[in-house]
Amino acid sequence: SLVCPLSRAIMRDPVCAADGWTYERRWISQHFAKAGKAMPLSPVTGQKLPSRNLVPCHIIAQLVRQHLPDLAPPEVQLPIIRLLH
């Protein structure tokens, strides 16, 4: 998905966390900060993350650039996308 599970907006700086899920860097970094010194829980699985390492997800970034070339820059907040359950 091109949508961050935390922000529910199209990702412009996607990173992969230790849970294997991709997040918008700003939002997962905020999530990590809220955990303080403790290891954070995965926002998706609820399990403790083994690491705070974030790896750029180049394929998602490329897909966003390719399919949404007119997407606003990262400093412009995008509308939240409602997820269907």
Coarse structural class: alpha+beta
Distance between the termini: 15 Å
User: How much helical structure, as a percent, in the residues?
Assistant: 10-25%
Number of DSSP E strands = 3
Topology as a string of helices (H) and strands (E)? EEHEH
**What summary fits the major beta sheet?**
3 strands, antiparallel
Strand content: 5-15%
Give the integer mean of the pLDDT values.
89
Q: So how many helices?
A: 2
Rough shape? elongated
Could you name the ranges where pLDDT drops below 50 across 5 or more consecutive residues?
none
Major sheet strand order: 2-1-3
Global Rg: 13 Å
Commentary on this structure:
The chain has helices at residues 25-34, 58-67; strands at residues 14-16, 22-24, 55-56. It is elongated, with a radius of gyration of 13 Å. The chain has a 3-stranded antiparallel β-sheet with strand order 2-1-3. It is α+β, with helices and mostly antiparallel strands.
Which terms summarize this structure?
alpha+beta, 85 residues, 24% helix
Helix and strand topology:
Elements (H helix, E strand, L loop, with lengths): L13 E3 L5 E3 H10 L20 E2 L1 H10 L18
Antiparallel strand pairs: 1-2, 1-3
Could you give a short description of this structure?
The chain is an alpha+beta fold and 85 residues long. 24% of the residues lie in helices and 9% in strands. The radius of gyration is 13 Å and the shape is elongated.
